[in-house]
Design brief:
Largest sheet: 4 strands, mixed
Shape: globular
Radius of gyration: 19 Å
Number of strands: 9
Helix content: 10-25%
Strand order of the largest sheet: 7-6-5-8
Strand content: 15-25%
CATH topology: paralog of FGE (formylglycine-generating enzyme)
CATH architecture: Alpha-Beta Complex
Structural class: alpha+beta
CATH class: Alpha Beta
Number of helices: 5
Order of helices and strands: HHEEEEHHHEEEEE
Length: 250
C-alpha cells in the first residue's frame, strides 16, 4: 500500500494542475523560452554614441529571466484569441500558422502574455537579450552590416509582410528575429533618456498611452534594426509589422 501511495503522488499532482487551469490556459500552445543569465550592461547607443534618443548611456543591472525564443506566431495567438473569445487578427491573405503575428495592439499582447503567467519585456530586458547578454552588438546576432541578411528580414531582403518566426539565424543566446521581421511591443511606456544617467527613472506603464516598440521590421532600413533603436507608438495601435514576444521574470 505504501508503495502505491507514493507512486500516485506525481499523478495526483498533474491531475490537480490540470483541474486548476482556466479554460483559456487549457487551450494555449506552449511557448519556447530561452534562459538569459542576469548581469549588468551599458544600455543605449554603445556603438556610436550618436543617437540622441538612445543616450545617455547608463548602467543597468538585471536578474536572470526567460524570454521567448521566437516571436509569437499566428497559430499561438489564434489559440489564445479563440479560447478568450477575442477577434482574430487579420492576415491580409498572407497565411497564418507559424508566421509572426501582426495587427495586435499593446493591450492584447500584454493580455496574451499574462494568460501564460508571463508579461511583455521591459525595455532593459529586451535590449539586454537582443545584445546577447548586453554585449556591444549593433544588430541582434552581429555587428557586421554585410552579414545582416543572415540574421534579419528587413527592407533590404524581406517581403512586404511578416515571415515565419525563426527563419533566420539566432543571436548568441539562441533567440531569433530580435532584429527585423516584426517590431516587438515593450511593456514600458516611451520616455526620453534624461541628461544624466543617475536621473533616469522608469515609470509605471499605466501612466501613459504611448508605449515602445523595438527591433525594426521587414519594411524598415538597416539602421532601425539596431539594438538600441527606439520607437514610441500609441498602445492601441495595430499594424501589419508590429508583433511581440513574452518574458518570464521567474
Amino acid at each position: 500500500m505504501i508503495r502505491i501511495f507514493f507512486l500516485s503522488i506525481p499523478l495526483l499532482f498533474l491531475q490537480a494542475c490540470s483541474v486548476f487551469k482556466t479554460p483559456v490556459e487549457k487551450q494555449l500552445i506552449p511557448l519556447e523560452m530561452s534562459d538569459v543569465e542576469g548581469g549588468s550592461f551599458q544600455m543605449g547607443d554603445a556603438i556610436f554614441e550618436e543617437n540622441d534618443d538612445s543616450l545617455p548611456l547608463h548602467l543597468v543591472e538585471l536578474p536572470s529571466f526567460k524570454i521567448g525564443t521566437y516571436e509569437i506566431t499566428y497559430e499561438q495567438y489564434d489559440a489564445f484569441a479563440t479560447a478568450a473569445n477575442k477577434p482574430l487578427p487579420p492576415d491580409k491573405g498572407r497565411g497564418r500558422g507559424k508566421r509572426a503575428v501582426a495587427f495586435v495592439n499593446w493591450y492584447n499582447a500584454q493580455e496574451f502574455c499574462n494568460a501564460y503567467g508571463y508579461r511583455l519585456p521591459t525595455e532593459q530586458e529586451w535590449e539586454y537579450a537582443a545584445r546577447s547578454g548586453g554585449k556591444k552588438h549593433l544588430y541582434s546576432g552581429t555587428n557586421d552590416p554585410d552579414s545582416l541578411d543572415s540574421y534579419a528580414r528587413y527592407k533590404g531582403n524581406g517581403a512586404p509582410y511578416s515571415y515565419f518566426a525563426g527563419s533566420k539565424k539566432p543571436n548568441e543566446l539562441g533567440i531569433y528575429d530580435m532584429s527585423g521581421n516584426v517590431y516587438e511591443w515593450i511593456g514600458d511606456w516611451y520616455q526620453i533618456y534624461r541628461s544624466g544617467a543617475d536621473s533616469i527613472t522608469y515609470h509605471n506603464p499605466e501612466e501613459s498611452a504611448v508605449r515602445l516598440i523595438r527591433g525594426g521590421s521587414f519594411r524598415e532600413p538597416e539602421n532601425v534594426l539596431r539594438t538600441y533603436w527606439r520607437v514610441g507608438v500609441l498602445a492601441d495601435y495595430e499594424s501589419y509589422d508590429i508583433g511581440f514576444r513574452c518574458v518570464d521574470p521567474g
